[in-house]
Amino acid sequence: MKKIIVLTGAGISPESGLQTFRDANGLWEGHDIMEVASPIGWENNKNLVLDFYNKRRTQLLTVQPNDGHKLLVNLEQYFDVTIITQNVDDLHERAGSKNILHLHGELLKVRSTKNEQLIYSWRKDLTIGDYCEENNQLRPHIVWFGEEVPMLDKAMELTAKADILIIIGTSMQVYPAASLINFIKPKTPIYFIDPNPSIRENQYPNLKIIAEKASSGVLKVVNELIELKF
Description:
alpha/beta, six-stranded parallel sheet, single chain, three-stranded antiparallel sheet, SIR2/SIRT2 'Small Domain', Rossmann fold
């Protein structure tokens, strides 16, 4: 069975009603990124950081997967599919995809500030005084700017095994995730779905650009792959 790696970014989520921080009205509007998404910001103002992610978590629980998420599930009937996502939402899981690797953490999880192995599911507000079993403050299970990306090595390993690479809704400018395209085998077919593509077809061999939003672009790619069955 052929291996498909799907790399998704924030651009797959707006059709579900989630904003992206790179938009003019994005999630980071009114906030310096380093205030709410860095270890320094956490140390300077924990309440601000917690409030920011509490609002994001509350919003996430009000939205649903869109067709872009749902259509990817169809590929699992014909291919070995793994989704590597930069997104911290759980919309791929709710759509029914089985193999998902979150590069930047998960909004519906929290972890200990002292022991990174203590990770808990979390669907309510997180506040000062919420402790792990070792009596240490909990924090959002999010990879902040300046922190290591613990799942990066696994993502590189998976991408190197890809027979087909599908990239959806990412600017390919956020590193280290953007570097994953460099780990594919030579001549691997690449599908790039984005209404405003940031790369050109002559930049990579076997690259096909679908300049559409996620739902319509994914439909075209899924139908093509299922028809070809490689």
